[in-house]
Amino acid sequence: MLNPGDYSLCDLAITTALTAVAQTPIQDLEGMIAATIDFKFSYGSGGTTCKVWVQVTSDDGQTWKDIACRAFTTSSSIKTINVSGLTPVTTAITPTDGAMADDTTQDGILGSAMRVKITTTGTYANTLLSVKINAR
Amino acid sequence: MNSLLAQLDRRLARRGEPIYLRRQVNAGVANTYVQIRMPAIVRALTVEQLIGNITQQNFFIITSPTEIYRQQWPGGKTPAATGAIIAPSDFRIPNTSDVLFLRGAQKSIQRVAPVFDRGELIRLEINVLG
User: B122 to chain A, minimum CA–CA distance in Å?
Assistant: First the structure.
């Protein structure tokens, strides 16, 4: 990989409801063969649900594919997953964009850029969402 | 690449010392941050510059946006600001809410002066205190 390292996909204070709000992507990840993804949800008060989809693209951002979804509610939580680009995916999958089921992961699919898309319901206060990756 | 930026990057590669730039996001008691290591030229102020409230705790830092581009600091953001930095309001330019670590100590950023050449950010001049 040309640019291995730690990147922040989002560090965001969650307040009013967000509907499928995509963050700016981390780019230049060509050659990435694995990524460890850390989700940190620091709950304050209010709010109902917070869903985060990690997405990759292989067509310069024209289309984005969900590779992981993590759902949070009203408690602080830290979740970590690792995905590998070397895992064979020989049965075709149908990519989704912000529709992957809660707490599921699609291994074996990576791309040249990565971003998160966020949907929240309710109004959170003093709540923080952080998604960081270690790409290599 | 802009020739002035390339010149600064060469100088930083030869003579720069490491600094750490950190952006923190707070929400109540929760906080998180994004930090990068970058080379910089660090100058203590001269006798002539130590006037008024300016003390020897002030440092003048010259650095380049190249590491900010390369490490994609501070990461994904809601505004769709992509491409080259062309305006001082760009979120990738350090601001006075960020902190900087220099020679083992945390410094607060007092002032950031982005220098542009033909619309491209070529240099960051930062005054820190601490």
Answer: 21
**pTM for this entry:** 0.89
**Distance between CA atoms of A64 and A19, rounded to whole angstroms?**
16
Chain B interface includes A74 (CB < 8 A): no
Domains detected in chain B = 3-129 (2.40.10)
How does residue B77 score in pLDDT terms, banded at 50, 70 and 90? confident
Q: What angle do CA A62, A67, A70 make, to 5 degrees?
A: 120
In this complex, is the C-beta atom of A54 within 8 Å of any C-beta atom belonging to chain B? no
Counting every residue written for chain B, the total comes to 130
Paired tokens of B23: 């952006």
Alpha carbon of A92: minimum distance to chain B alpha carbons (Å): 30
**Distance, CA of A7 to CA of B73 (rounded, Å):** 8
Domain chopping of chain A, boundaries: 5-135
Mean pLDDT of chain A: 95
Find the residue in A nearest to B29 (Cα): A126
Tell me what ipTM this predicted complex has: 0.86
Residue A24 to residue B80, Cβ atoms within 8 A: yes
A27 CA: distance to closest CA in chain B (Å): 8
Summarised one tens digit per residue, pLDDT across range A78-90 is: 999 999 999 999 9
Which of A10, A76, A127 is nearest residue B75 as measured by Cβ atoms? A10
Beta partners for B2?
none
- pLDDT tens for B106-118 read 999 999 999 999 9
A17 touches chain B (CB under 8 A): no
Q: Is domain A5-135 given the CATH code 3.30.70 in the classification?
A: no
